[in-house]
Amino acid sequence: MSTPATSFNEREFVTCQISRLVEDKYIYWVGGGGEPLSSVLLAKRMSAPNLQYLTEDGVVGPEAQVPFDPLMTMISSRANYRALQWGTMNYAADLAHLGYVDYGILATLQVDRYGNVNSTVIGKYDGGEGRRFGGPGGADSIAALAWRTILVTDQQKRKFVDRVDFISSPGFLDGPGARERHGLPPNTGPWRVYTPWAMFGYSGDCQLMLQGIAPYVTVDQVLAEMSFKPTIAPKLEVLEVPTEEELTVLRTQIDVGGQVTDRGRWVELADGKYRFAG
Amino acid sequence: MRILEEGKADYLKVDPDGYRAAVRDNKPHQMVSKLMTHKEAIERFVRDGDYLAYDCNYFQRGPSSLIREIIRQRKKQLWICGKFTYVACALLVESGCADRIDIGFIGFGPWIARAVKEKKVTIYEYSNALMTLRLKAGAMGVPFLPARSFGGTDGFQHSACKIVEDPFTGKPVLLVPAINPDVSIIHVHQADEFGNARVFGTGIAHTECALASRRVIVSAEEIIDTAEFRNDPGRTSIAHFAVDAVVHAPFGAYPGTVQGYYASDPAGVVEAMGAMYMGDFKAYLEKHVYAVASHDEYLAKVVGAEKLAEIRRRETIREGYHS
């Protein structure tokens, strides 16, 4: 049974989109907390009870007890509860090197047309002039080594740029063959980019391609919140809204503290159409 | 081996032969008691100018009490292995203890940003797993290890990594230089007086840190009898000969968690994060470090018995952490 929801937050929307991709037959490396972890935890409760995920601390297939205390998404008893195995960081990187990680899921600060990820600096790197962030963390290993990477970012002009200010973690770098030339394993790379408004894939020449949009925005609205014009798929998919069942699980079992929805706009169904509330 | 690309950053000198000799000459091969206080361990084993690795971080089974003692003793010019960490790097920079950081991930915040701009601290770029791989190389006694990530990034240019033509496959592969830190500090669940140590649950690189480092300080929640190691040797994470000092540090990870023993203190975590990103870091250091003389005094006067009982009570999960 599934009932399309009539009121939801755009960040709940993107969490549900990613959650629906997650399947029991794959292994996921989930970066940090936020939407990547929420979407996997939601999938585990909705459709993929036996899915396995790793985090950077080398945990394999935990049955995490949510909610976590602030920042306790790794190396904590609740995050690592009833795992199949407890490892360390080099073990997680080994598994990814070996090819066990089918999908990586990453939230990003800034992303470009080739799916390169910036989590280091907005603005100029040299001289400490730009606004500095924490560094790639585990994202470089995920982006380099997972067979396919799913990126999550905001639909904002300054986050969706032609070329990131600093490549912290690799997308397709500057096009076909570049990853292999720099020592990354073949047949890997970004696969989807999700925002609260849209879903992008990649064309054969490694360029970002708009493939789907949320029913509460237009293509023009999406393009207005990008610094460059992506390729647009010949037939655009209209992405399905969350179901009431998904939202109930997300709100009561996973996002209990409201971290998913503490930012982002609310959407409602009115006169047969989805639109931003208020 | 043909070098295809090279990062430009400085790096800790790679010297596996020197490290072997140091292991032979300086590591305690015989079982000897190494129990000592925080103060004595930091005085004896952390020196100005050292390369310092701490395992985990200030919030997650890290050696928080030893980090506070380093700051209290006003060590200088430390070069920090900044992997998987939020506030500890900022604490060490703002207190004037550190001036170089190899970055995997750190909570940056305005304090480090200002220090970078004023050239008081220099940053080198890696990733978390590349830093643990560097430690693994150090722990294997080899000068470098290959990895298949990080190539093509801008971080590469600001690292000491190289991309070479792999002599076996002919394909490009990235190499990271080994690190043998001058000193590592590691917080564990249990240790004996000789330095045999157990970590339960997941971790970052405690075994690699211990084997790779010239000097190693282990702080432990519990000091247990050596017989317990002999009864269950498969649970030993670190063998005694890698360890130079053992410090009994109950609640040593506070305000962080030690899995299975106590939960984090969310108020303490938020206070430290708040100080780092927007608050008064000097006041934080004064209250949590300088105003007290020891870890025991810190727990008694700043944290309080009630809080400690509460975080123990909140850690309800026991599976995997208690036999």
State the gist of this model.
The complex is a heterodimer of chains A (278) and B (323). By secondary structure, chain A is α/β, with parallel strands linked by helices.
Keywords for this structure?
heterodimer, A: 278 residues, alpha/beta, 8-stranded mixed beta sheet, 3-stranded antiparallel beta sheet, B: 323 residues, Glutaconate Coenzyme A-transferase
Helix/strand layout:
The complex is a heterodimer of chains A (278) and B (323).
Chain A lengths: L6 E3 H10 L7 E4 L3 H13 L5 E3 L4 E2 L24 E2 L2 H10 L4 E5 L2 E3 L4 E2 L2 E2 L8 E2 L6 H7 L2 E5 L7 E2 L16 H4 L8 E5 L3 E5 L5 E6 L5 H6 L6 E8 L5 H11 L11 E5 L2 E4 L2
Parallel strand pairs in A: 2-3, 2-6, 6-11, 7-12, 11-13, 15-16
Antiparallel strand pairs in A: 1-17, 4-5, 7-8, 9-10, 13-14, 14-15, 17-18
Helix pairs in contact in A: 1-2, 2-7
Chain B lengths: L2 E4 L9 H11 L11 H8 L5 E4 L9 H9 L5 E5 L5 H7 L3 E6 L5 H9 L4 E4 L2 H13 L3 E4 L6 H4 L4 E4 L6 E6 L5 E9 L5 E2 L7 H7 L2 E9 L2 H6 L13 E4 L17 H12 L3 H10 L4 H9 L1 H10 L9
Parallel strand pairs in B: 2-3, 2-9, 3-4, 4-5, 9-11, 11-12
Antiparallel strand pairs in B: 1-7, 6-8, 7-8, 9-10
Helix pairs in contact in B: 4-5, 6-8
Give a verbal description of the structure:
The complex is a heterodimer of chains A (278) and B (323). Chain A is α/β, with parallel strands linked by helices and 278 residues long. Chain A has one domain (7-276): Glutaconate Coenzyme A-transferase, CATH 3.40.1080. Chain A is built from 7 helices and 18 strands. Chain A has an 8-stranded mixed sheet with strand order 3-2-6-11-13-14-15-16, sandwiched between helices. In chain A, α1 packs across α2 (34-46). The longest helix of chain A is centred in the N-terminal third of the chain and has 13 residues, at 34-46. In chain A, 54% of the residues are buried. Chain B is of the alpha/beta class and 323 residues long. Chain B has one domain: Glutaconate Coenzyme A-transferase (3-Layer(aba) Sandwich). Chain B is 36% helix and 19% strand. In chain B, α4 packs across α5 (109-117) and α6 packs across α8 (206-212). Chain B is globular and about 60 Å long. The relative contact order of chain B is 0.17.
